[in-house]
Amino acid sequence: MTQIAAPQIDFGVIAPLVALVATGLLILLVDLVSRRATRRMLYSIGIAGCIVSFVRVVMQFGHPATTFGGAFATDRFSWAFDAIILVALAASLLLSLVRDAEDGASPAAYSSLLVFCAVGGMIMAAATNLIVIFLGIEQLSLALYILAGTGLGRPASQEAALKYVLLGSLASGFLIYGSALLYGASGSVALTDIAHAAASPSMLFITGFTLFIVGVGFKLALAPFHVWTPDVYEGSPIAITAFMAVAVKAATFSVLARFVYVVFGHDVPALAPLWAIAILSMIVGNVGAIAQTNLKRLLAYSSIAQAGYVVLALAGVTGSGLSTMVFYLAAYAFMNLGAFAVIALVGDGSESVADIDSYRGMFWRRPWVAACMTVFMFSLAGIPATAGFIGKVLLLGQAIAAGPWGIAMAVVLVLGTLVSFYVYFKVVWAMFSPLEDGASAPAGNALVPWIAVAAGVAGVILMGVLPQLFYSFFAT
Amino acid sequence: MQLIDVFPLVPFAFGLLTLLVPRGNQWVRILPILGAVLTLGMSLGFAAGYFVLGGTATTSSIHPWIVGPWTAAYHVRVDATSIWFVLLTTFVAVPAIWAAWSYGDAQRQRGFMFLLLTFESTLLGLFTAADLLVFYVYWDLMLIPVFVLLAGYTGSPDARRAAWAYLIYNGAGGLVLLLGVVGLVVVTHTFEVLGSTFAVAPALQWWLFGAFAIAFLVKTPAFPFHAWMPPTYTHSPPPLVAMISGIQSKAGLYGFIVFALPLFPDAAHAWAPLMLGIALVSILYGAFAALAQTDMKTLVAYTSLSHLGLVLLALFAFDITSLQASVLMIVSHGLISAALFIMLGFIEERVGTRDLFAFGGLAAKAPRLQALMLIAAMALLGLPGLSGFAGEFLILVGSWQTQPVVTAISLLAIVIASVYALRLYQAAMHGEYRVPAGAPAAMELRPRELLVVAPLLAAIIFFGVWPAVVTSRTSPPIFGHLRSYETR
Q1: How far is A178 from chain B (nearest CA, A)?
Q2: Has residue A181 been placed in a domain?
Q3: Alpha-carbon distance A312 to A401, whole Å?
Q4: Minimal Cα–Cα distance from A393 to chain B, Å?
Q5: A396 contacts B65? CB cut-off 8 A
């Protein structure tokens, strides 16, 4: 009988994860034990856990390490994604503090699930092995399926949860089947070993990789696997939508990037399907956003397009591509979290006030809210002096240097951006419209979302004006 | 940190200060004009430093901005060519902002002033940028104040629609430019391209020049990229249109002179036939279209198309005289169109319409207005002694050497210019005095309004009498470019 050797576990390496898991458990425990635990208190525990975990991540800087027999690696790459995921977690916990975010569900369950989601995302960011990747994705997704449906009073939220579960499990199926084929082709689940099989790819390998891309494409909401996105984004509670848009995307991109860099290491023809779906996403996302009248749906289509943009960072598979990707995702995090925070602020916890029409004349009633939203819209559109602009320049540089596919993607990005001008400026235009008499003014004025809005504006402007602060940090 | 580092941002800073002033306070008016005058003073200082004292360009230190696969730096400079654009900007901005004093809505005046000053900052940033990415940043940023001004500060549905035309055309041009800019940096690995020579392969040059040219032609605008211009010019408030037509329309021409022509000399020659065609069509189409207009602002808008087409002809005739004259023509057109649009604003404010058939004979009630309009209209048609003549004449003399056919055909536009300029002047000023019902009785210019326009007209006369002040001083860098063409 053979002994299965338990791998050595270095708890220092997984400390940020341990901190988060402990936070989630603590929230449940406090809710169980204390009768007087208020929502505010539970969410505060969650945010405190975020901060502890963030500090642990920062303490790892400069000391890359692996554990679990090499299946879990922390390095500059995983730290960057951990940071983005933790920021997204903190922001959505903050946004959840707005009145009735969980809409009748248990605040403890809600906030702990959100924390466990982030754990899944951080596992993905550090995973170097197909099984750990799958583990992370499922950890993230299962919790999120429930959270999408926490708007108990609203059928739209139930619908969102159902759609998300059905299509999400289908995606997981693709992913696990692709992983199995990759294992079959290479005889190993470790990415470094799969790289050997990638040198002379068999039919089995190509099929497995394509299925893997399909699964990842679902999670990233890349076209043509995006159809669930608008409904799920619209139906889910705003804080969950924000988390989905930012953290899920960042975590999944970390998986995709690690896979491409470790397994291929340079540009190969097998990546062509990836470039093709990036092009398709940029078109579908931007064109789809034109007709939207609801801000959450608009941002859903926007996130489809932005996911397409991020793929450009991988073009050519060069070293600077990773820092470009991290930069764009960080920019994306700031501008999206900020925009969702504005929606939460204006809607004051109710999900109904996300129509662009209710933003008409906003500037003349609430200039600060409108000014902040304008900054986020400009950044999404890629106007200079915002994070989105620098991100786009980096992406374009990366893509154009990468040859024909890259140039094609760059051209589509530019065309898509032009279309998106209409999309984002439509919101700005509405906010600067003359006030109409008798228009009902959304009244929300909670203080808490302002923290997220202010942080978003600061991040967007800082990354746009002094990009080197961020870029040099991520640059490898 | 040197003075020039912050120079382009001075108006913006004053704009921010203006936002802090309580609503309705008189400082809402005084601060912006102070900012504009201070900026004008600074640019005169740079000009004096350059022309009188030294002769070396004023350059800032290079502050690295992005260091990655390629480098970009915050780097501003004023040299023999760009100083004229900077002077034009700061000089036109003062009357434009002063004219904005009569902007009606006291509630919104702060924002209006802030956006005008921001607009001036983006223009100054554009003309002083020594780094191509910084140039692009300002190129794109320029869209924002204009879009917001049109969408939020005009109140008329037409203007709010014009905001879209402006945004989509100029945004599209900007994005094509972005492709070109990034395409270039992939080869050069730096955005510090001014004054350096890069061996860009001719095939690539052809594409990059095309990208640059499309953006520049949209901004100017030139036929067939001009569809955004008539609605924007017609429906913008006078201070804004004075700045768009007086200054912003020169951004594309500046881009040709400073970036596109020196960077891609081979491609410039390859593209020249098409560019000359575009220039010719713009010259004629603009002139004929101006003839047909009854809206006085639209009329002047089309004359812009015609006159800036002439500058385009000058650039692509590749002749020393016409190249030198192009800068003079640019300065002259900026002054003339700013003066005209500001005065048309005064007239519209009085008679309440822009329709040339709806009023007339203002000369009887407003002799001062008539005198000033006469100068501006004469400058528009190219009367000798005024700046418009000097620019046009030198361009035609120069272009004749290399492109006699195109030049000969474009002479037709000079003839038509007399017709539309006189028609504008006569319809508004001469004939029987008639104004729409409800117009106020006082038609004469108030002293402030007189002072707003007077400096522009004085400058028109100054450059008309002494054109060499521009042509002799811009020669070195442009001459250098041309020599590189000739040795090819």
Answers
A1: 34
A2: no
A3: 11
A4: 7
A5: no
Provide the domain limits for residue A360. Answer: 266-476
Tens digit of each residue's pLDDT (9 = 90 or more) over B189-205: 888 887 766 778 888 99
On whether residue A173 sits in a domain, the answer given is no
Which residues, at least 6 apart from A316, have a Cβ–Cβ distance to it below 8 Å? A267, A398, A399, A401, A402, A403, A406
Yes or no, beta carbons of A425 and B147 under 8 Å apart: yes
Local mean pLDDT, 10-residue blocks, chain A (476 residues): 72 90 94 83 92 92 85 90 95 82 75 94 94 94 90 83 92 94 91 87 90 93 90 90 94 94 87 93 95 93 95 89 92 95 79 78 88 95 94 94 92 95 94 74 70 94 91 70
What phi and psi values does residue B165 have, to the nearest 5 degrees? -60, -45
Q: Which residues of A touch B182 (CB under 8 A)?
A: 393, 396-397, 400, 410
Domain locations in chain B as residue ranges: 271-472
Q: What is the pLDDT of residue A112?
A: 93
The percentage of chain B sitting over the pLDDT mark of 90, rounded to a whole number, equals 59
CA B229-B230-B233 angle, 5° bins: 80
The sign of the dihedral angle between the CA atoms of B243, B245, B248, B254 is: negative
On whether residue A12 sits in a domain, the answer given is: no
Instruction: Name the residue facing B179 among A363, A385, A411 (closest C-beta).
Output: A411
Distance, in Å, from the CA atom of B109 to the CA atom of B30, rounded to the nearest integer, reads 12
In this prediction the pTM is 0.94
- Report yes or no on A22 lying in a domain: no
pLDDT confidence bin for B488, thresholds 50/70/90: very low
Query: What pLDDT, on a 0 to 100 scale, did the predictor assign at position B487?
Result: 45
- The CA distance from B118 to the nearest CA of chain A, in Å, is 13
B38 and B96 Cβ atoms separated by less than 8 Å: no
Q: Does B172 touch chain A (CB under 8 A)?
A: yes
The predicted structure's pLDDT at residue A446? 73
Res. B241 pLDDT band, cuts 50 70 90 = very high
Q: How far apart are CA B210 and CA B30, in angstroms?
A: 44
Size of interface A-B (CB pairs under 8 A): 88
What is the count of structural domains for chain A? 1
Sequence-distant (≥ 6) Cβ neighbours of residue B469 within 8 angstroms = B462, B463
Nearest to B144 among A383, A467, A471 (CB): A383
Q: Which residues of A touch B (CB under 8 A)?
A: 318, 320, 323-324, 363, 378, 383-385, 389-390, 392-394, 396-398, 400-401, 410-411, 414-415, 417-418, 421-422, 425, 428-429, 432-434, 467-468, 471-472, 475
Using a CB–CB cutoff of 8 Å, tell me whether B157 touches chain A.
no
